[in-house]
Design a protein that fits this description.
Largest sheet: none
Shape: elongated
Helix content: 55-70%
Strand content: under 5%
Order of helices and strands: HHHHHHHHHHHH
Number of strands: 0
Radius of gyration: 27 Å
Structural class: mainly alpha
Length: 223
Amino acid sequence: MQKSNELIQQMADGLKHTPRTTAADKQQNQPTKDAPSHQQIDAINQVFALFRINYHNQYYKAFSDTETLTTAKRLWIESLHQFDAEALLKGAKRAIETSEYLPTLKKMIDCCQGDMQSHGLPSARIAYIEACRAPSPKSAYSWSHPAIYHAGKLSDWHFLGHNSEYKAFPVFEKNYQQLCERIMHGETLAAPTVPALPETIEKPLSKAENLARMKIFKKELRL
């Protein structure tokens, strides 16, 4: 167990030093179900290597020959295509730490997704209260998680602020849960864009300045 945890940590550390891609890059290079990235393929190979170390007898019983192992890896890559390499390794670590048995594909999907708490997501009720109490401008507020802001925006801030909880909460809850599902499937939500401050701040004119401008205005109009 200690050896496998050290291997996982080394793999995760290596992934942390890989260049971060922008949202545009992710969209352009997003691997599809038929075309996993090289990192995903490498991560799946590492996951199976970790399972071999931890579940030695079970592993060789399940994958008794090369053909069976290759078929299993192909199935896992297709079924786990929505998770990046880091999420796959974290999922493997969670599976090893929580089960004495070789995980099924369904168990691995659950481990890669994690739960709301592991992603820093509060319950829908707590998120709703934060969304309703946050002052304006909403984008400048320090949210406990960006998902709350995006759920509030999707639900319409005016709607949330001018309707009872009985009517507003179900709408917010639906949007929030959909966002939570996307996050647990590996998507990263962008933080809200804070509105930029104006370069110059105009000072109100004094009474004398207003009178002076009024005189000029009357003179121009020949009043």
